[in-house]
Amino acid sequence: MPETTTATTTDGTAGADPAKRSLGTGPGRLLVTLYGVFTVAAASRSLYQLIAQFDRAPLAYSLSALSAVVYGFITFSLVRGGEGARRAALGCCALELLGVLGIGTWTLVDPAAFPDATVWSDYGMGYLFIPVILPVTGLIWLRRSRRA
User: Does the keyword section mention Transmembrane helix (predicted)?
Assistant: First the structure.
């Protein structure tokens, strides 16, 4: 449940502290939904692959598990709200974007290193490029929510 506190506004009335409002409200609700879906998708896929097929592509499956952890942390931060959670989500979205760009480039340059795809392979092409769009959208939302 998001933290809320009351603060006295400039006119002397009590109201919700905007720094503690949930990042998952308004347009952020769509981000929470998408990150939640990607958390479940990446976690379930990588868990199965790590258990049943690890010897086939350990690097790819481990990177998919890492992406699930990143997605889960961002989801949690967006739901939690507050300035600390916003900063943590901002850092994770930046890390996610670097991961998508780095792994996406790596899979194109050295396809032999990835006998099976990760969530971030080919910039998320297997997921309609949502993995590369999501962190950009998240970074924009997190920057805008700071000013609100």
Answer: yes
Domain ranges of the chain: 23-147
pLDDT tens string 16-62 = 555 455 677 787 899 999 999 999 999 999 999 999 999 999 999 99
What backbone phi and psi angles, to 5 degrees, belong to 8? -85, 125
**CA–CA separation, 66 and 80 (whole Å):** 21
* CB atoms closer than 10 angstroms to residue 109: 8
Residue pLDDT, tens place only, 117-145: 889 999 999 999 999 999 999 999 998 88
Q: Give dist(CA 130, CA 122) in Å, integer.
A: 11
Whole-structure pTM over 0.90, yes or no? no
Cβ neighbours of residue 124 closer than 8 Å, sequence gap 6 or more? 100, 104, 130, 131, 132, 133
**Which pair of structure tokens corresponds to residue 22?**
């949930």
Q: Which residues contact 144 (CB under 8 A, 6 or more apart)?
A: none
Distance CA 47, CA 62 (A): 9
